[in-house]
Write a structure and sequence with these properties.
The chain is mainly alpha-helical and 277 residues long. It has ten helices and no strands.
């Protein structure tokens, strides 16, 4: 149970508004790619490694948010570490976003199996990374079970999801670089994702101002780094789309008129014939 209260009702309302605005932007950021795949009936241009790593990353973030938000034992360990006068740094919008993100990224994985994919596949490196992550999680779980260190365990989840956030963007950025094109990659999701990162920071800053403390940043460093990493790669993708590899519109085909207009000029080597009145 929360042991601290808001000092300003205005800042509390702003905190809630910023949080659910971030949820809206981040949640909507998935759908341009989903719709693009649906209308094209193709996933060519969408990197499969990006999709798999993204789903794993959001699964870890979900476990962190849900556990810290709902578990009294973990919340007590958080307060014991950071102070009982500090607010829990996970809000309801964080839990809602994580839940939604798992479902949508799973649907994206389904689309990669349904639609035209060309010669794309999931790399062995990605399979190795995902396997190593879950093996490490299993080991850490048994360590936490022995010592009851649940806050430490979900902090590991939070750290891993940040690392995966860095890794997941690299295949798509490299693919755009090699192809010298962003065709097939929905830039709309990048704009929404960047907006979500900005409003997420605004929510955290609002809480810090109200509580006169920046512990919510250090207490949830994963959320801070996640926003920084996302905004950095969002800017990179925007540069790739609009500056480095802008889409080239195909020129409209030349259409011959059905009726040729009369020529005013006299064809060469043809004698002039005087007109008679």
């Amino acid at each position: 149970m929360e042991t601290t209260a808001w000092n300003s009702s205005v800042l509390q309302i702003a905190y809630t508004l910023f949080g659910w605005t971030a949820f809206f932007f981040w949640s909507c950021s998935f759908y341009p790619q989903v719709l693009l795949n649906f209308f094209r009936k193709s996933v060519v241009g969408l990197n499969f490694n990006y999709v798999v790593l993204n789903n794993t990353k959001h699964t870890l973030y979900f476990l962190y948010n849900v556990t810290l938000y709902f578990s009294p034992a973990v919340r007590f360990q958080y307060h014991k570490k950071y102070g009982f006068d500090q607010m829990i740094p996970v809000a309801a919008n964080d839990v809602a976003f994580s839940t939604h993100a798992i479902l949508v990224t799973a649907f994206l994985l389904l689309q990669t199996a349904m639609y035209e994919r060309g010669n794309q596949s999931i790399s062995k490196v990605t399979i190795g990374i995902v396997s190593a992550v879950w093996i490490a999680i299993a080991v850490c779980f048994f360590v936490a079970l022995h010592s009851n260190a649940w806050l430490w365990l979900i902090s590991i989840f939070n750290t891993m999801q940040v690392v995966l956030a860095v890794i997941k963007y690299v295949p798509q950025a490299a693919m755009n670089f090699v192809r010298k094109s962003t065709e097939g990659f929905g830039v709309g999701n990048v704009l929404l994702d960047f907006s979500g990162g900005v409003t997420n920071y605004a929510q955290m800053v609002t809480q810090s101002i109200d509580q006169n403390s920046w512990v919510n940043f250090s207490g949830n460093i994963g959320k801070v780094l996640l926003s920084l990493v996302s905004m950095f790669f969002d800017l990179l993708f925007l540069c790739q789309h609009y500056v480095f590899y802008p889409s080239k519109k195909k020129p409209a085909p030349m259409v011959e008129p059905l009726i040729q207009p009369p020529h005013q000029s006299v064809p060469p080597n043809e004698p002039l014939v005087p007109q008679t009145v």
